[in-house]
Amino acid sequence: MEIKPIKTEKDYEKSLERLEVIFDAKPNSKEGDEAEILSMLIENYENKYYPIEAPDPIEAIKIRMEEMNLKQKDLVGIIGGKSRVSEILNKKKKLTVEMIRELEKILHISASVLVNNYQLIT
Fold first, then answer.
1. Residue-wise over 87-100: b if at least 16 C-beta within 10 A, else e?
2. What value does the mean pLDDT take over residues 5-34?
């Protein structure tokens, strides 16, 4: 087992190929330990060179609504009346601090995601 830092795209590809071979190795075995370390190195490389950006706040809300099988009407009373919910989900109006607090509680979306800036559609 020769493990070294992943510094190039070629190193990354080789690491992925090796991990594929040893992926199902038994934990606490030589190959299992190698797979665990290699996974951490790959994750570190991917976070650095292939970061995944968080969705904009409205997309995050829509994704969570889908996961929770909620409809637009289910947000009435949480972020306002029927028309306000429509305006928010259609990016005609911005979320307020109070709306963000309620959405964080109800939908369990981090406020740090909900406070991100997004463009209104005019």
1. bbbebebebeeebb
2. 94
